[in-house]
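Our platform keeps sequence and structure together, in a single record for each protein. Such a record has a labelled line for the sequence and another for the backbone structure tokens. This encoding replaces a full spatial description with a residue-level series of whole-number codes. Below, we set out a record of this kind in full and without editing:
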Amino acid sequence: MTWVLLVLGLVLLVFGADLLVKGAARLAGNFGVPALVIGLTVVAFGTSAPELAVSVKAAYSGQAELAIANVVGSNIFNVLFILGLAALISPLIISHQLIRQDVPLMVGASVVLVLMTLNNSIERWEALILLLGLIAYTAFLFYQGRKKGVDTSDGEVEEMLKAKVPTWQNVLLVIGGLILLVLGARWLVQSAVEIATMFGVNEAVIGLTIVAAGTSLPEVVTSVVATIRGERDIAVGNVVGSNIFNILCVLGLSGLVSPAPLLAGEQMAMIDIPVMLGVALLCVPLFFAGATLTRIDGGVFLVLYVAYVWFLIALALSQPYLPTLQNGIVFGLLPLVLVYTAYSLWHSLRRR
């Protein structure tokens, strides 16, 4: 029954986020809000709605470490698994704006999170700083969009606004989406805690793996579908934007509603959050090299994700082969990835 609740919770989160985005976007359109603003606010928040619902619920219920684990695990999953899978389907095009602006912002937000969790927690005032960062980031995107042209907007938003739906139906979609998100988050958090207890592992491990992957399902669908359609720059922009929102919005709001500071245990602060930062930093040279993410890059990302999850499981279950696995990753896999990254960057610069 616990596993059934977990799956049902994930399904409700995905459908709830979809209903909420459609209803809110059309409502905003009915009131004359420009498509650009809708894309930068409603749709951007909507893609992170599952993470937001789960982390806020976990923080409010006292599972403070699960709230951070969900965000950290989602950010790692987004880059290594989603971009890895999308790049294997078709090499991804990286826009100049992503290289010059969005990826550095993702790295910067990750650095801020590392610094905030040096004392193993995120205080309420630190959560407020993250939220202020979100407001500044959204305002900057809006200003940038207005400079390019008022009508500049996401094709997805234009598609939503084409359908002329009565206001009362959109209100019902928003209410229904919120109910599904709340119910889905409740079932997911409840089942995740029970599964952690069942296996005798920390809640954070479940948050970093099952919960993180589940709440990132909308990003998986969006990026893979965009890649298949040939919209290969959207696939990357979706992931990078989601990672920035996860840190600034999800952790910011979770930290504000939590009755106690959000906890980042020793493993989270020493291993998982630095891994998230390392993954963000890895994007800089690989994205810069040729302004594409090749199939080989995608394969490297997927291998790194498998190694990370394998290490997490071995650590949680105290497997006897853990030291061997750790040495293999630290002294084998990581140096190979660094050599490959350096070669890719050198080859790209030489070609230019």
